[in-house]
């Protein structure tokens, strides 16, 4: 029986205005009564906890009112399912969005505590890896800012991805201990705990009315327990919820084993359950790793869907209105098993007819595709799914039969097209294609940049697009300007406000007003002064973390992102080697002093990516210590890249490296963050670079390299890279020096195979784009030497970033996919 709807009419207790005195009193109260410390002996971490709790109290009132409003109005809710939420530190974000930074700063100053020190002490939430997770975090903040009722659903990773350290230039993975001392932002919701099953078997059950239904009887059970974190919108417009699931055993200890002396075996169930939420992206190079990854994905998908259905039934009493009141967005293929799980919940647990359940499912789900790389679209061995999720495999087979029948009968597909759209890949071992499952089970499939969306139609989903031509649409990614301009670059924010007024804080499109001042010498000088201060801060951080001294007067050339061959950090470091050779061969020439800054993590099982990190560090060691370079070129790799590190690097960047192989980067969001902070982009016509080129104008971005069509042509014709290498003496010399061990005298063969791959096939077009990249870097040098022009271009980049606000993206999702009304900011 559905529960009666809850009526929320209790008033929220009124809190004193946020005066310095009130905030000071609240921090002291929290320090004494929640942290348990006398102010006389309190340490910085005690003050951090007390300050977070005082700020959180202010947020709680808004959070509860937001929830009450949604229940009162019966507004449609959005549920965003993502395996990553790279939210970073939350205290400054929350304070900024509810206008508490200055009163909290002054209150702490009265207590002889520095707010900046506390902000830097807060650990980063280790809930993501890169762009996918940071996008999800931006989207949650924007949904709160434009007043869309929403939940984010993910996993409460104990250790996240990993903490990256360097050992003799090699990446070393260590556990990230962000939860070691608790998380004051989260609330455990014991009432929101759901049983998750694995394995077992499926039995047909005949109901009293003669209906035969399938009943899954798992043999392995655990609990998903909810932990909620408030996500505050700009000016406190709304506070939404990030709900993260923690895996816990049904029975924490097997007493019979313990009492028989098997003290370790008695904890086996706990260890098996808790392993699911220990680490983000467990290595899937082994069968055990693949199984754990699939368990993770089903665990959080099932818990989220059980929670969504429970909430819907509690408020509305029936499931027929599900698509009218619920929009579920799948962030990439990781939650794609949700399609089968919702069908199981509707058909098996709630008795709906298959056709009705399929209509509700498809009307409720939307799917965001983030990649064209086949290996990233995810597929699982049929045998693994049949063993771990037997009922879901049955459902997938039935969905597949319906889709293939429709393709054959309505669309008249041939055998090749049937194989293309099938949810089961029969080539080289039968596997379930999760991208296909997400596509057929959703009413909307969106790409994340204009180019990416068109390539989806032409490549990975070409036949599904022919079968369902109205489903694919584009939603170009965005970033929240609160985090990536106002908070990480307060100096620039103040300068902009002084010049064009404060309106841009609420309407980022008003940044266009800066264009009128791009050529103003006085404003240019101020703009450059802000950049210089940010570079000095980064230079200090580089010195502290790597013991490398860099000059803030040099051009800061930055590439920070996940280490991957298609992102082409290798192209960047080879160009650094070529520049090094040129400086030594022609010391009489004038050179632009340049600091090449890298940061990013390589997947633990991705050998070439880890080798590229080692190469960067080896090249840095040689170049940085060669007196012949005279400080004209420095190379820096900053370890353990995360949101907080990015917040220091991005405002200090002069040049933004967005140099992926054309056609391989879905969108990128780092490119937008750099643009907002006045960096000039050097990049290929790939991902959102294409739209950035349109927004900022061809004269204000440096584009080079093969187009997507040219890349595809070279690959299709099997054109070898040998000719490009032979035609470029600089490239040949750089490759020879790397391959022969100039930068690895301890192991001369270390990079032989890495460079050999460029000579043999060069799938990512590093060699073939090299000369164009060098020419583009020469263009950058010329711009740098014309400071008036450089500053004007930098200002125009900041002025043109409005289109890339995640507020714009979310409003498009709301209107065109979710059917939710977003209140204008």
Automatic annotation (TrEMBL):
Top-level taxon of origin:
Bacteria
Q: Which InterPro entries does its entry note?
A: Glycg_phsphrylas (IPR011833), Glyco_trans_35 (IPR000811)
Name the cofactor(s) required for activity, per the record. pyridoxal 5'-phosphate
Coiled-coil annotation reads none
Q: State the UniProt keywords alphabetically.
A: Carbohydrate metabolism, Glycosyltransferase, Pyridoxal phosphate, Transferase
Q: Which reaction does this enzyme catalyse, per its entry?
A: [(1->4)-alpha-D-glucosyl](n) + phosphate = [(1->4)-alpha-D-glucosyl](n-1) + alpha-D-glucose 1-phosphate
- Under Enzyme Commission nomenclature, its number is 2.4.1.1
Pfam families, from UniProt? Phosphorylase
Question: What job does the chain carry out?
Answer: Allosteric enzyme that catalyzes the rate-limiting step in glycogen catabolism, the phosphorolytic cleavage of glycogen to produce glucose-1-phosphate, and plays a central role in maintaining cellular and organismal glucose homeostasis.
The entry assigns this protein to a family as follows: Belongs to the glycogen phosphorylase family.
**Matching PANTHER family:** GLYCOGEN PHOSPHORYLASE, GLYCOGEN PHOSPHORYLASE, LIVER FORM
* Name this protein carries in UniProt: Alpha-1,4 glucan phosphorylase
